[in-house]
Amino acid sequence: MSNAILDIAALHKSYGANPVLKGIDLAVNENELVFVIGPSGSGKSTLLRCCNRLEEPESGSIRVDGTDILRPGVDLNQVRQKIGMVFQSFNLYPHMTALGNVTLALRRVQGMGKEAAEEKGRAALTRVGLGEKFNAFPNELSGGQQQRVGIARALALEPRIVLFDEPTSALDPELVGGVLKVMRELKESGMTMVVVSHEMAFARAAADRVIFMDKGVIADQGPPEEMFGNPRHERLREFLSRINH
Amino acid sequence: MGAWDRFVFSFFNLDIARQYLPAIGKGMVTTIWLALAVIVTGVLLGLVLALLRSYRNKLVNFFIIMFADIMRALPPLVLIILLFFALPYAGLSLEAFAATWVALSLVLAAFAEEIFWAGIVAVPRGQWEAARSTGLSKLQTLAHVVLPQAVRMTLPPLTNRVIAITKGTALGSVVALSEILNQASSSASQAGNATPMTLGALAYLVLFIPVVIFGRWIETRFAWKK
Amino acid sequence: MDAIVQNFFNLEIAAKVWPFLLKGLGMTLMLSAIVVPLGLMAGLVVAVLGTLKSRLLKAALIVYVDFFRAFPPLVLLIFIYFGTPFLGLDIPKLLAVAIGFLLNTSSYYGEVFRAGIESIPKGQFEAARSTGLSNAQTLRFVVLPQAIRNVLPDLISNTLEVIKLTTLASVVALPELLNNARQAQALTYNPTPIVLAALMYLVLLWPLVRLLSRLEHKSIAMH
C-alpha cells in the first residue's frame, strides 16, 4: 500500500450508543477519485469527517500520506494542511472577501506574507474560474461561486488529498454543473479525491472507483461501469433504483 | 411668592447654580472616570472569561458560570455595600471609588461574559470546522473567524448593558463617593435649595443622552439581518 | 477562619435579625409586585402608541424613552423624593419610589416591546389586514403574541433588573430588604445581616438568572 495517500483500517465510530461506522477498511491511491454513495445514515459523511478528525473515531487507524493522524501526539494543524475539505454548506467566512477566505490559512498557518499569500490565493481562485471575484464577499456570490471559493480555499494549501462532503447538495440545480466542472478539472490535474455525493453522472464520468456504504460498512465497491451498470448487491440495486427516479 | 415663582426659586435659582457649578463639575469628573474604568475592566474581564469558556474545561466552566450567575443575581448596590462596609471586617479596606469600581466591574463582567459567550456559541459550527480543516489552531480560529462574527451579534446587547451599568455609578453616592449625585445632594443640603439637584440632573443628561443615542445607532446598524 | 465566621456568618446575630430581614423581603416583594405589572402595562402602551402613524407621537415617545433610559434611577428617585417637598407636595415614601421606578421601567419595557413588534415581518401585518382584521385586532391577535414570545428573554431580564432596582429604595429609607439589613448591621456592629441579605437576594433571584440563561441561548441560537 505504499502508494496509498489515504489508508483507513478497521475504523469504528459511534454516536453515544449508536454505532455509525462498523469497521471500515479503505485505501485511496494517488490520483484516484473515489466516489462514495449510500443511503442517508449509512455513515458516508461521518467517514469523510473522520479523515481530518472533525469526528473522533473510537478505534481503528487512519494514515494520510504516511502520517498516522490518530496518534495522540500528532500535530493536527500541520496534518490538516495536507487534507483539503469542501463542505456541503460551503462554510465561507462571511466577514472576509473571497481572497480573504482563501489566504487566511496561508498567512496564519503557513506564515506567508500578505503579498505571497494573495498571489497564491488569486491563482487558486482563477483556477476555479473566479478570476473576477477576488474582492467579492460571500453574500455577493451565487451558491455555485461560493462553493468554488470553498474549493479554492482548500486547494491553496496544496493538499495531498481533497475530501468533498456532498459539495453540490445545497446548490440550485443550474449551479451544480459549474462546480462539477471544477471538480472534473481537478481530477484531471491529478489530485487525489474522495467524493461523497449523489451526482451519479459525475461518478460515471470521473470516478475511478465507486464505494457503496450501507449501515456503517462498505457493502460493495468497484469501477463505476460495474457498480452502476451491473450492480451485484441487493441493497445497491435498491438504492440505485430509488436514486434514478 | 406665587407657586410658579417658588418653583423657579427652588429649582432654577441662577445664583445658587453659579455657586455650586464647580462642585457639580467635580462630580462629573469622578463619574466619568468611574464609568470609563468600569467599562474597560468589566468588558475586558467578561471577554477573557468568555474566551476561557471556549476551551470547554469543565472545572473552569463551573466557576465561570457560578461567577456569572452570582454577579447577575446580586443587586449591584448590595455588592457595593458588601465591599465597602463588610470587607473591612476581613481586614481589607476599600475606599469609595475602589469599592464602587470593583463592584460595578464584576457585575458588568458577568453580563459581558454571558453576552460574549452567547455570541460565540451562535457562530455556526461550520465556521469552526472550515477554519480548523485548513489547519488553523483553536486560538487562531477564535481570533480571525469566530470572534469577528460573534462581536457583531453582541454589540447591541453589550451596549445596552454597558449603559445600564454605568448609570450605576450614581450608586457610589451611597458610600459617599463624590460623584454627581453625592455632590448635588450635599450642595442642595448646604444651600437649602434644590437647584444643585437640577444641575446634577442636567449633568447626568448631558453625559448619558449622547450615550443612549449612540446605543440606538449601534442597535440599528448591527440589527439582525432578516 | 474563626474571625470570618464570627464577622460574616454569625449564627447568633443571623437568628436575631432574621425576622427583621424577612419583613424587608416582604416590602421588596410588594414593591416588585407593584412596579413590574404596572411597568409592563405602561411599556406595552408606549410600544403600541409607537405603532401609530403620527410622527410627532413617535418623536415624543423616543424622547420619553431615551430620557428615562439615560437618567439614573437613583437620581430620579432622589429627585422625586426630596424635590417634591420644595414644590409643596408631600408624597408618601412608597408612592415616590413607585413613581420613580415606574417611569424608569416603563421606558425599558417600552423599548423591549418596541423591538419585539418591529421584529415581526411586515408580511404578518399585511396578511392579517388583507383578511379584514383591523389594526387593533392585528396587533392583538397576530403581532403581539409573536412579538412577546420573541422578546421573552428580554422581558425576564428586565424584570430581574426591576427586582434588583428595589434596593435603591433603601437610600430613601424605605424598609425593604437592603435597608433593614443595613440598619441591622449598624445596630449589631456586625456585617452578618448584610451577608444574610445578600444570600436572600441570591436565593430569590438565582432561579430567574438560570431561566434567563437558558432562554437567551435558545433565542440567540435561533438567529
Describe this protein's structure.
The complex is a heterotrimer of chains A (about 240), B (about 230) and C (about 220). Helix content of chain A is about 35%, strand content about 25%. Chain A is an alpha/beta fold and about 240 residues long. Chain A has a six-stranded mixed sheet, sandwiched between helices. Chain A has a four-stranded antiparallel sheet with strand order 2-1-4-5, with helices on one face. In chain A, strand 1 (about 5-15) and strand 2 form a beta hairpin. The longest helix of chain A is centred in the C-terminal third of the chain and has 16 residues, at about 175-190. Chain B has a single domain (about 15-180, about 195-220), classed as MetI-like (MetI-like fold), CATH 1.10.3720.10. Chain B is built from nine helices and no strands. The model of chain B has no long low-confidence stretch (mean pLDDT about 90). Chain B is elongated. Chain C has one domain (about 1-220): MetI-like fold (Orthogonal Bundle), CATH 1.10.3720.10. In chain C, about 85% of the residues lie in helices and about 0% in strands. Chain C has ten helices and no strands. In chain C, helix 2 (about 10-50) crosses helix 5 (about 95-120). The radius of gyration of chain C is 21 Å and the shape is elongated. Chains in contact: A-B, B-C. Chains B and C meet through helix 1, helix 3, helix 4, helix 5 and helix 7 of B and helix 1, helix 3, helix 4, helix 8 and helix 9 of C.
Look up the CATH topology of chain B.
Answer: MetI-like fold
User: How many whole angstroms does the radius of gyration of chain B measure?
Assistant: 22 Å
Number of domains of chain B: 1
Rg value of chain A: 18 Å
The amount of helix of chain A comes to: 25-40%
Please give the alpha-carbon distance between the first and last residues of chain A: 39 Å
Contiguous runs where pLDDT drops below 50 for at least 5 residues of chain B: none
- Strand percentage of chain B, roughly? under 5%
- Overall 3D form of chain A: globular
- Overall pLDDT of chain B, averaged? 89
Sketch the major β-sheet of chain A. 6 strands, mixed
Helix-strand category of chain A: alpha/beta
